[in-house]
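Retro notes (design track)

What went well: tokenization of the new backbones is finally stable.
What didn't: we kept losing track of which sequence belonged to which structure.
Fix going forward: every design gets posted as structure first, then sequence, in one message. First example under the new rule, 172 residues:
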């Protein structure tokens, strides 16, 4: 069985866990993205969080988290996908999955699954829209590695910027 994994964990206000796995199948030409959304402060599951996909800047499907915070959505194995997690009274969070890298037939014949767990923070204090519109994390297809790779340095920079914005907003 062909299987590859990619996992990243971001703590505090930027909790994102991504796991990538591939299994031989008939080829679906999609990535199944799934995960759990929780409240950062309490750790409780958040129901009715809207997860909306934008592929190459065009709005696409939306799904909502269930009573235990779980969601599942499918992304095409091509294009640049931006996923926005939104719930009223919480800061939105965005991630990006870039599937534009060159995939051979063997990679396309596999079933790809990415797990993305997100923590959302109550929107008090308010944060600037330019920060909230930035992806908290970026994953992309790496042909040389034959898997989706998470850009850890990018995520770490975002996490620091997010913490700084919270600190500054708290002083106002």
């Amino acid at each position: 069985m062909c299987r590859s994994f990619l996992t990243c964990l971001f703590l505090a206000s930027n909790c994102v866990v991504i796991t990538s796995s591939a299994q031989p199948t008939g080829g679906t030409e999609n990535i199944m993205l799934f995960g759990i959304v929780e409240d950062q402060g309490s750790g409780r599951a958040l129901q009715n969080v809207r997860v909306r996909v934008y592929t190459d800047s065009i709005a696409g499907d939306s799904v909502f988290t269930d009573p235990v915070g779980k969601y599942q959505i499918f992304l095409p194995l091509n294009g640049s996908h931006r996923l926005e997690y939104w719930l009223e009274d919480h800061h939105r969070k965005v991630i990006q999955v870039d599937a534009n890298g060159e995939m051979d037939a063997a990679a396309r014949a596999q079933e790809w699954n990415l797990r993305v767990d997100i923590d959302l923070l109550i929107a008090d204090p308010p944060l600037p829209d330019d920060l909230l519109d930035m992806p908290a994390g970026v994953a992309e297809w790496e042909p040389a590695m034959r898997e989706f790779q998470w850009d850890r340095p990018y995520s770490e920079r975002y996490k620091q910027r997010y913490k700084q914005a919270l600190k500054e907003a708290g002083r106002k």
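Added context from the reviewer: DSSP finds three helices and eleven strands in the chain.
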